[in-house]
Structure of GDT1 family protein:
Amino acid sequence: MEAFWISLGVIFVAELGDKSQLMAMTFATRFKPWPVLAGITIATAVVHLFSVGLGGLIGDALPQTAIAIVAGIAFLGFALWTLRGDELSEEESQKAQRTTRHALIAVTVAFFLSELGDKTMLATITLATQHGWFGTWIGSTVGMVAADALAIVVGRMLGKHLPEKVIRYAAAAAFALFGAALILEALL
């Protein structure tokens, strides 16, 4: 339990104001909250399971530059995709409201890529070198999902008061900034 509580607290605080929280807010303006939260949870659980395994074995042996560049390119792609927008027929619109598969996939992939080599991943690796892997995994996952759930609530509130065009441009700008920041961070 000690590993759980320490990991939950450390990761929750580390996630506040992080790019992942801003991404959660951005996705929440475009998609329903449950697929966004589910995508974050899936990606976080996988990345943090990998992190505690790595922390238990070798600690800090990740090729962070390549991961950051791939993630940055993916975010630039998300920005272009968001700017392009989609036109739906009435039938497609009704189907889109019933399904959450595409939102879940987009959020899961985006969060998975953004968390590789991120400070919360590195913090989870470090915590796993000092505490039990299972408590660290569950605590770090819950801490991150809780922090991002706060961002989803804020994103949904903003989404109800802003025109769709403003949301689309803001989301595209946010994805472009995330992508550029990841690439610059990797190259510098």
Notes: Residues 133-159 form the longest helix (27 residues). Residues 35 and 100 are 6 Å apart (CA to CA).
